[in-house]
Amino acid sequence: MLCGVGGPLGGLSPLWGVVTEWGVIPYLYLVYIQPDEELKKLGDLMDSVEFSRYWTEESSVFSMIPSIQLFQKMFLKIYENLREDLSLLDELKSRNFDAMIYEVIAFNAIAIQEYLGIRTLYPVFSITHTASLSSSIGEPAPPSTLSSALSPFGDQMTFKERVMNTVCTIIYKVVMKPPEMSSYNYPYEKINLKKAESRAPFVFLNSNPYLDFPRSTITKSVLIGGISVNVTEMKQEKLPLEYETILGKQERTVLISFGSIMLSKDMPERYKKTIVAVIESFPNVNFIWKYESNDVDFGKNLKNLFFFKWVPQTALLADSRVSAFITHAGLGSINELSYMGKPAVLVPIFADQMRNAKMLARHNGSICIDKTAFGDFDLLREAINKIFNDESYKRNAENLAKQLRIQPITPRELLLKHATFGAEFGELPSLDPYSRQMSFFTSYMIDIFLLFFSFLSLSVYIVFTFLRFTFKFIFRKRHTKRKFD
């Protein structure tokens, strides 16, 4: 995307697999870091994570902790490897980069940025938001209305949900806190990651204000959700002949896909059988199912069900003959179907998908159901049937798509303009809110409330003392008068 700026770009990428170099763009330099044995083992551990368990297990911030910690170990190891041999960074240093963009979880990028002498730093996050980054830049992130990215809530929460969301937010902040690092230039000097993030002129978040829940942001937060969606290119994609044949058979076609991490082949057998039974109950609708195995005996006899190990998802969503999408509500899929105006049955499975599903469902173009509905014939069929027979879902989905397509400033423009502006001026102290330096005590005006409470308490005490004295005086006067009489 930034290649549109026209200046030289560089990319630093750690690997634990085989990669071929890109040579399409002459002013783009990609530098790959080959892994050592320890890093390969960490990569193998990441690949071996059993995400399939989330088909039946509940997802929570607690269940995600091991994966987050594994990521942190990997990036810490990359930091240590570079420290042992700085020749690669010395080569990059000679290119005099103006700015650096990095994924927030890749905390080792701060040490690299400092060593290379890059003045402008852009943190980016691949999901909608993170409370830890909001804290660094002084952006309000109250857990009373802003659900944690890994919590299953929306913006309207019950008391119990607000308690759970607060706990989730605190745990996420603690877990996301990266290990300490020393400067490459000054080994005895610790790097203050929070301070480094606060100096960023802008941060880029994978959130779109017309799609996401409304929330308080500051000027530094640039919301570029949907930047990877190119509607024109999606509509120009040509479908393979086999898909054209399927789409031409029936008036309606439904796409079923659960992304690249949650695989259909790993779902419980009872889920598969329920889905097949529901599909069979719609004989006049074709279903294209991304299923990653040849073992499809459970549904091979259905004439309206077609299995594919891989599907051209963007091209299918851009095709008007696809009527609906049954999806896991991954953020990439959410953005794509939103821009294409497709009604959907959202079945979130783990991580940020629960929040993503609620985020889209509130626009009334989709239906959100629990993953256990895959074991309930009536519930699953009812959801699909609603999408087909209630025109409001299609109408609302298309209305959202229209808003996204003609939004005043596109995500691409936001990224390019802010990135070039920040690269020219560097740190922008004028955008740094003073609230970032305030303590919790003063930021939430606890000191003022205590002052008011003190005045109120003092006033009550004075009034009470005055009344007590007055009653005593009157009582004594009456008592004395009676005694005299």
TrEMBL record:
InterPro entries listed in its UniProt record: UDP-glycosyltransferase, UDP_glucos_trans
Keywords: Glycosyltransferase, Membrane, Signal, Transferase, Transmembrane, Transmembrane helix
GO cellular component: membrane
Predominant location category: membrane
Record's catalysed reaction(s): glucuronate acceptor + UDP-alpha-D-glucuronate = acceptor beta-D-glucuronoside + UDP + H(+)
Domain of life: Eukaryota
EC main group: transferase
Pfam families linked to this entry: UDPGT
Enzyme Commission code: 2.4.1.17
Gene3D superfamilies tied to this protein: Glycogen Phosphorylase B (3.40.50.2000)
Subcellular location per the Swiss-Prot or TrEMBL entry: Membrane
Residue stretches spanning the membrane: 448-471
Family per similarity comment: Belongs to the UDP-glycosyltransferase family.
The protein, known as: glucuronosyltransferase
Organism this protein belongs to: Caenorhabditis brenneri
